[in-house]
Design a protein that fits this description.
The chain has about 450 residues and is α/β, with parallel strands linked by helices. The chain is built from 15 helices and 16 strands. The strands form five sheets. It has a four-stranded parallel beta sheet, covered by helices on one side. Strands 9-10-11-14 form a four-stranded parallel beta sheet, covered by helices on one side. A three-stranded mixed beta sheet has the order 4-3-8, covered by helices on one side.
C-alpha cells in the first residue's frame, strides 16, 4: 500500500495528466448494481458506504480534483461535491457560494470590487460570491483549506489547485469504476428564487435542474453511482416528481438534516430549519403542492417548521413514501454531545464531550426504511469528543459507534481512516449492520 505522501503525489499527478486512471484500490470494489426497493426505487448500496466529504479534505484543500483523486486512491465509495453556480450558469465544486474561506479571492486586487454583503438563507454574509464570477474568472482562483492551523498538511497545498467544475469531477469519477458521486445542491431556493447578483439582478438559476442536465451530458447516470442530497426538501421532491422522470432517471435522494434539537436552535442560525419552508409568503395551497402530504404527517401547516419536525417517526415515514431513500443527519443529532467551555478557537483539542445519550432518530429512520449517512467525521482533536470517561474518542471509534447504532455509512474528511474503521469489525458484524432491517438490532 503506498504511503500517504505517495498517494498525494499519485493524486496530484492524476490531475496534471488530465484525470488519467489510477490503480483501483483493492479495498473498494465497484458499486453493486442498484436493485429496486419496496417503493420501486433504486436501493442505496447494501454495503456500508464511506463518503469522502469534500474529497480527502483532511489531507488536501477541499473540493479540488486532487482531493477527490486522493479519496478514490484511499478507497472511498463516493466522493462528495457541493455545488454552486457561476454567473454564466456552470456548476462548480465549493462548500459555499461565498468564496473567501476556501479560495484566494480575497487577495486578488482585480476582484476587490466584487466584495458584497448578501442575505443567504436568511443569514447575513459578507464576501465574494460565485454567482458574481464567470467560469473564466473562477478558473484564475486557487483553493485553500478553511482550517490551516488544524490541517497544516492540507495548508501546504494552498494556492496550487484550481476550482473544478462539476463536469470535471464527473470526468474524474468516470475514470474510476469503484467510485460514485454524491453531489449536494447548496442553497437551491437562494439561487432560483430569492438571491440577487452584486448588481441587484435576480440570480434565477435552477441548480437542481442544472445538476441533472450535467449528469446526463456526462453520461453519468447509473443509480448505483449517483446519490443526490440537499437540506431543502422542496428541491428533492421536485427531483423525484418532475426533474428526474423528465430526464428518464430514477436516482437515490438523501434528505440532509441540520440541528433537530430545539434547545440548540437560535433564531436565524440557518442550521435549524430548511430555508424553503421559512418563506412567510407560502400559503396553504402552495405548501400542499410543493410538499404533498406533509401537513397531514405533521398534523399542522409545515410553514416555518424546523428540522426537528422532519425527524419524527411520522415525518420520516412521509419522507420515505414521498421522495427520500435516506437521511444525512448531523452526528450530534444521533449521539448527544455537550460543549466544553473555555477552549480557544484555534486550539487543537476537543471542544465537546459525549453525554452517553443516544437519540431515537437513527432507529426511527431505519424503521421507516431509510438509509442513514451521518456527517461529518473528522480526525483532528478539535473535531473529536471526550467520551464519558474523559478519553478522546478517535475518529475510528466514532465511526464504529455509528455503525453499531445502525448507520449505513458516513461522511468523513479522512477516507482512509473511514475505510479502516469499516474493516475493523468482524465481517459478519459489518454485513449485519449493512443489511439491518427495521425492527431488528445489530449485536454490539
Amino acid at each position: 500500500m503506498p504511503t500517504p505522501a505517495q498517494i498525494v503525489l499519485i493524486a496530484v499527478a492524476a490531475v496534471v495528466v488530465g484525470c488519467a486512471p489510477m490503480p483501483e484500490p483493492t479495498s473498494s470494489p465497484a458499486p453493486a448494481p442498484a436493485t429496486a426497493d419496496a417503493m420501486g426505487r433504486p436501493a442505496l448500496s447494501a454495503r456500508v458506504l464511506v463518503i469522502a466529504h469534500r474529497g480527502a479534505s483532511g489531507y488536501l484543500p477541499e473540493h479540488t480534483l486532487a482531493a477527490y483523486a486522493l479519496a478514490i486512491a484511499q478507497g472511498a465509495d463516493f466522493i462528495e461535491p457541493d455545488l454552486v453556480p457561476t454567473r454564466d450558469g456552470v456548476l462548480i465544486a465549493r462548500h459555499e457560494n461565498e468564496l473567501s474561506a476556501t479560495t484566494d479571492v480575497g487577495e486578488r486586487p482585480e476582484f476587490a470590487d466584487r466584495r458584497a454583503t448578501k442575505i443567504i438563507d436568511g443569514v447575513r454574509v459578507e464576501g465574494w460570491f460565485s454567482e458574481d464570477f464567470t467560469l473564466a474568472e473562477i478558473r484564475t482562483l486557487r483553493a485553500r483549506t478553511p482550517w490551516p492551523a488544524l490541517r497544516p498538511e492540507a495548508a501546504a497545498e494552498d494556492g496550487r489547485h484550481p476550482i473544478p467544475t462539476f463536469a470535471e469531477v464527473l470526468a474524474l469519477a468516470r475514470a474510476h469504476p469503484s467510485v460514485g458521486v454524491y453531489p449536494e445542491t447548496k442553497h437551491p431556493s437562494h439561487f432560483e428564487r430569492t438571491g440577487t447578483r452584486i448588481d441587484g439582478t435576480p440570480i434565477a438559476t435552477d441548480i437542481t435542474r442544472l445538476l441533472v442536465e450535467t449528469l446526463v451530458a456526462a453520461g453519468f447516470t447509473d443509480p448505483a453511482r449517483v446519490v443526490i442530497q440537499s437540506f431543502e426538501p422542496g428541491n428533492l421532491i421536485r427531483l423525484r416528481r418532475e426533474i428526474l422522470p423528465a430526464a428518464g432517471l430514477d436516482l437515490p435522494l438523501v434528505q440532509l438534516l441540520g440541528n433537530v434539537d430545539p434547545a440548540r436552535a437560535r433564531p436565524g442560525d440557518g442550521f435549524s430549519a430548511p430555508f424553503d419552508l421559512t418563506d412567510p409568503a407560502l400559503d396553504a395551497a402552495t405548501l400542499d403542492a410543493r410538499y404533498p402530504g406533509l401537513a397531514k404527517a405533521l398534523g399542522r401547516s409545515p410553514a416555518g417548521i424546523g428540522y426537528d419536525a422532519l425527524a419524527t417517526p411520522a415525518t420520516l415515514a412521509w419522507m420515505r413514501a414521498t421522495y427520500a431513500d435516506g437521511i444525512g443527519p448531523w452526528i450530534t443529532n444521533l449521539v448527544a454531545r455537550e460543549a466544553i467551555t473555555g477552549i480557544p478557537q484555534d486550539a487543537n483539542q476537543p471542544r465537546a464531550r459525549l453525554t452517553g445519550a443516544v437519540t431515537p432518530l437513527l432507529a426511527d429512520a431505519r424503521r421507516a426504511g431509510l438509509a442513514v449517512h451521518p456527517y461529518t467525521l473528522r480526525a483532528e482533536p478539535a473535531f473529536l469528543a471526550l467520551d464519558p470517561n474523559g478519553e478522546i474518542q478517535s475518529v475510528e471509534v466514532a465511526a464504529i459507534q455509528l455503525l453499531e447504532l445502525g448507520a449505513t455509512g458516513y461522511f468523513i474528511d479522512h477516507p482512509d481512516r473511514g475505510v479502516a474503521a469499516r474493516g475493523r469489525g468482524a465481517p459478519d458484524r459489518v454485513e449485519a449492520i449493512a443489511n439491518h432491517r427495521p425492527g431488528t438490532r445489530s449485536k454490539r
